[in-house]
Amino acid sequence: MDHQHLVPCGFGELLKTFRKRQRLTQRQLAHQLGMHMNTLSAWELGSYLPATRGLVLELARHLALNEQETRQLLEASLTALSPYWSVPLPRNPYFTGREEILKALHARLCTEHTVALTQTIGLCGLGGVGKTQIALEYAHRYALDYGAVLWIGAETQEQLISDLGHIASTLQLPECSEKDVSQVVAAVGRWLSTHKGWLLVWDNLEEPEMLSRFLPTVRQGSILVTTRCQPLGTLAQGIELLPMAHDEGAVFLLRRSKVLAPDANEVQIQQFAGSLPEEYAAARRLVEVTGALPLALDQAGAYIDETGCSLSAYFQHYEQQGIVLLSRRGEPTQDHPQSVATTLLLSMERLHREQPLAATLLCVCAFFSAEAIPEEVFTMGAKYLGPELEPLETSPSQFDQILAHLRRFSLVQRHATMRTLSLHRLVQVVVREQMSQQERTLWQQRLALALNELLPVLTLESPLEAWQRYERLVPHILTVVATLSDQQGGGTLAQLLWKVADYLRERGHDEQVEALYKRALHLGEQALGPDHLLLTYPLVGLAILYSLRGNTELAERFYQRGLQLREQALGPDHPQVATILNNLAILLKNQGKGEEAARLYERALDIQTRALGPDHPQLIRPLYNLARLRLSQRRGELAERLLERAVQIGEQAWGSEHPSLAYPLNALAELRLEQEKNEQAESLSLRAMALWEPVGGSDHELFAGSLHNLAVVSERRGQLEQAESLLKRVLQIVEQALGPMHPNVGYPLDTLGSLYCKQGKYEQAEPLYRRALQIWEQTLGEMHPAVAMTLAGLAHLFLAQGKDLQAETLYQRALAIRGEYPDLYLPETAEILHDLACLYQKQGHLQQSRLHAERALTIRVRVLGDMHSSTIATQKLLTHLLEVEDPLSGVQEREEIPPGP
Q: Are residues 153 and 234 in the same domain?
């Protein structure tokens, strides 16, 4: 390394030379800078120096300095500060960000805080993460705080000894000319032991024990170490250095590529982003794909500066041939002459030589998502990862030792509390690029096998641990399967795909679910044959998905094929046949075929009861589904018994805290709302939310269902603002989870419209009703019961606005749709009849009004009971209608009663 001893007091002379070249007096330059002439005079005399780099750059601008002269002035502004300065590298004019790290270093290393013992701090991190640059910036920025700033390149012992000799010369020690190295080392050690207030940087320390070998035990100063080795033991306090923040990385790239000036401020950056949005976006994408590793960004910036290409063009080159660009360092550079690829490869080659098993584990990590890799892959799944790693399953200490070696090179970070690993994505890129295609395929196949074995089939009775394991593994599975071809994956890949699709569907994330199911089905048919039992899983998954989307024709087709395969393979009375019967019954129920659905539910329940016993948790799903059917038929007592039995079985089998209990609890809450037991409905909904949120999150449909129940309770209590807020949250969840045109989005729209209508906010209510109507007519068809519900709501709005004819038309259309479902949605039918009775009463058609009121009352008494508020409202209306009829004169009074609830 080329060293130079920079003599102090050069800044003032340099400034004076540049000023005179511009034919400026001190007064003129001070006026341009907006400062007192005495300040400028003090700078030129060397009494003191500019406080910030920004001031020096401002000087350079007014003095019309070129880039080389600006760098010269910058270096002089700090190298002149310390009586003893032995830093071989110039200050980096493009250094960006890292302010928190610099402040933390200053707080720990500053001589003001140094007492009798040395303060030793280690900056640890991956090669190329910016350790040397931070140490360099720290040395320049805080040089005033130290009597000596000394630098040792500690990558090799030869380098270290050479630099100690240079330090001896800088300190003007008598032994500096000695040929005996040990005398030079001892002399430097004595100086460090007898002087205070110095800073010594050990850069790129490969062997931490060299600190104690080459430094005296007692020393009085500050030591800053940069090293790849994470565990430094008692030698130093470690600060783990991570890649740059993405905003910092983008600014650094723009400055390094000279797209922006080195001192570009936030306003200029925003102006650039506004004027050249594609280029700014390319810069941010480059930061993302390189994982914000400073060396990679420096390489990219140097390439762009050297070749004159645009940021967007470089990004396209990187996407096409990333490893080629990562291997190209470009113009010669003193501070880090090696490319990213070379830097990382050197670490990996040493790892292969010293610890081949650690290198093997790194190969596994190269195919995962870079963050939060679960440790159980390497312990519970070790036997599927090849003979080299198989012993890890029974030897946790060996796993710990492997990680210790990886951490020594900062190739992997371990997060002990989360039991996960992480690594930089460029490490993954370089590791994969060193493999042959055959090696890559082998690792991908092993990983698919291990991940498939680690994932249980999810069912309603799956324990919380199963859901948590999916949550940890699914991001990595999606990364693995995206790069594994169908020809390489076989039946194992098919199973992995439908398991992940099931999980994502249950979590309400169906953006990629359909593609996963279809790929699993296609792959299964190719690898296993068209009649294999395992094909029923993606078939049923697709059927459920299409059912949720309202595509009943496709859903029924996939259910029927899955049912046929299971009956052929397992027999008609197998519990897995019952599972499909349950799902098919849901489909029939949604089509208004209530009794057909009930027969399938009961058959499924009978099959599972006989096969598994009366208290098996697999009975919960048919009990729950049959209960929901009875709820829609308003057979409340039967629904209540079914749901309470489902909850009882679940609590006995899983305990009272299992998340799957949220389903029957939520349904019970809906029943309590129908029964006008608001406090119980609220309590059940809150319990369901508390059980579901830890595993399913607060953005799931089930969570939204509980919020919907709470909104109804709030409305009934007159807490209208709270009800509105809850319904808006429900709408947001469902839209985000399922998309803006999903049928389930219509329910919160309709309820929110109803809330606004009751408040007289008709202008806000009408567009909500119309949007719900549009969604349902397009996705479910014009004769679906949900369409009738919104037609009735819109008719109620028109009735309140005095638009009687429009209201009557919509009520009649809604009533006609309800007629297609004679055994379902009876309370809703009764509500339409009640409102029509009110409309006819208002128009003076009392006989028609009475007939509709009588039909409404009959339904409400049978379904809701005599004491329900809706029943009482209809009874009141009918009583009034009978009282105002005058059979003798035929004259009928026209006193009106408003529509019921």
A: yes
Closest CA to 743 of 715, 775, 718: 775
Return the amino acid letter for 73.
Answer: L
Q: Which residue's entry shows tokens 């001896």?
A: 168
Mean pLDDT lowest among 76-90, 289-303, 767-781, 800-814:
76-90
The closest alpha carbon to 124, from 285, 27, 214, 236, belongs to 236
- 816 in a structural domain: no
Which 3-state string (H, E, C) describes 347-363?
A: HHHHHHHHCHHHHHHHH
Q: H/E element holding 772? A: helix 762-779
Length of the chain: 901
Query: Tell me, what CATH number does 201's domain have?
Result: 3.40.50.300
Structural domain ending residue among the three candidates 218, 242, 266: 242
CA distance 762 to 633: 31
pLDDT one-digit tens code per residue, 248-270: 999 999 988 888 888 788 888 88
Q: Largest Cα–Cα distance in the chain?
A: 136
Half-sphere exposure of 550 (CA within 13 A, CB side): 20
Confirm if 564 and 524 have CB atoms less than 8 A apart: no
Whether the Cβ atoms of residue 45 and residue 12 lie closer than 8 Å to each other: yes
Judged by DSSP in three states, 373 sits in strand
DSSP state of 423: -
Cβ neighbours of residue 327 closer than 8 Å, sequence gap 6 or more: 339, 340, 341, 342
Assess contact for 855 and 833: CB atoms under 8 A. yes
Q: Is the pTM of this model over 0.85?
A: no
CATH at residue 40: 1.10.260.40
Range of the domain at 321: 246-326
Are residues 192 and 123 both part of a single domain? yes
Contacts of residue 117, defined as CB under 8 A and 6 or more positions apart, other chains included, come to 220
Q: Tell me the one-letter amino acid at 105.
A: L
How far lies 172's CA from each of 83, 167, 168, 831, in Å?
11, 8, 6, 100
- Domain end residue (candidates: 326, 342, 364): 326
Q: For the segment 686-712, what is each residue's pLDDT rounded down to a tens digit?
A: 999 998 888 777 888 888 889 999 999
